[in-house]
User: Fold DUF2066 domain-containing protein from Vibrio olivae.
Amino acid sequence: MRKLALLALAMVHLPAFALSHVDLYRTEVAVDQNESNAESAARIAGMKEVIVRASGDQNAVNNEAIQKALSRSSNYLAQFSQSKNGDQTTMRMVFNDRQIRDLFTQAQVPFWPANRPDVLVWLVEENRYDRTIAWEHSDSQVLAQVRQQAKTRGLPITAPVGDFDDITGIEVSDLWGGFVDPLRQASKRYQADAVLVVKAQGEQLRWTLYDQKPVMLGQTRQAPLVGSASGDEAPTEMVNKLSDYFAKKASVVVASESSESLKVHFSDIESGVSFFVLENKLKALSSVASLDILTIQADTVTFNVHLLTSAQEFEQQVNSMGLVLQLEDSVMPSAQSQTYASQDQVKSELAGGALPLETNVEVEAISMNGGDVPVVAPQRVLNFQWQGQGVVPEFDEAETSSTDQE
Assistant:
C-alpha cells in the first residue's frame, strides 16, 4: 500500500505533455449546387483546407506543384461521403496522408507535424461597461469564431471550464490588467503548452500569447507575444497569426527524394536556349511536380523528374510536346564521384552559351528548388532526343513588361 502511495505521489510530479494530435486530413465542405461542377469544386476546397492545415502555410496552395495536384484532387482522396441538412449538402472527405506528404516533398512545401501545442484561451469580452470571461460553454460569438478557425488551421485550443475553481481563482480585472501571478495560478490546472489572453472590445481584439507552460508564467524572462486585430474577421485573423507563429517554429521541409520520381536523359541539347526551352516545357507539364538537374555531359542533360502522376502519363505528355524523339530506355549506374555546383553557376554557364560543354562537367544534385538531392541506386532511365533546336523561349507577359520598364 505504501509503495502504491509513493508511486502515485511520484506521478503527480511527472511533467505533463499536453501536445495534442490533430486530424490533419479530414474535412467537411459545403457543396454549392449552383456551381456547374459542384462536387469537384467542393473536393478542391477540401483539399486546399487540408494542405493549409498540414503545412501551416496559407500560401502553400499557390505553389505551382500544389496547383497542379489540386486539378487532380480525386487522386488524393481516400474516403468521401455526402450528407444533407435541410437544403444544405455537405461533402465529408478524408485525404490520403501519405500522398499529401509525398506531394509536400515534391513541392518542397513545409509540413507541420500533427502533434501540436495546446493553447489555453482566456477571453474577456467588454459589453458596454460590463466585462465577462468566456468559459467553455459560454454563448460567445467571438469564442465560437476562434474555435472554428482554430479547427480549420489545426491549432488545438482549450477554454477554461468555468467551474468553482476557475470562478474563485481569477478575477476579470486580473486578466484585463495583465497580472501574471493570478494568471499562472488559475492556468496551472490545465495541461496546456501556451496561454493566450484576449481582450475583446466590440470589433477590436488585443491579445497576449505566453508561449510557455502555465507553471512557468512569470518565472522566466521570455517576453510574451502581443498583437491586435479589428473588424468582423478579427478572431479569424488572430488565429491565423498564432497558427503561422506555431507552424513556423515546428514545420519541416522533407528534402529526401520522393519515391515517385524518374530519371530522364535529353540528348542533342546544342545551346543554352534549347536547355531553357526544354526546362520550361517540362515544368509546365501537369504530371511534373519539380525538376532536379543531375548531370550535364557534352550535349546531354539528365533530369530527375518528381512526378504527380504515373511515369506512363509523363511519357505521353513529353511525347505530345512534339519536340522530342523517344529512344530506347536505359539503366543509370550508381553514382561515382560527384561534383556539386550552385544553381546560379549552372544558369550562368547556360546563359553564356556554355552548351555544348567542351569537357565533361558533372553537375550532381542541383535542385530547381535550391536544395541538394543525392543520386542513389541504379534505375530505369527514359531517353529522348531533342528536336526543338529552332524553338525560342516563351516569356511571361508580366515579366516582359517589367523588363521593358527597366
Observations:
- Residues 1-17, 334-342, 356-376, 396-406 have pLDDT under 50 and may be disordered.
- Residues 38-55 form the longest helix (18 residues).
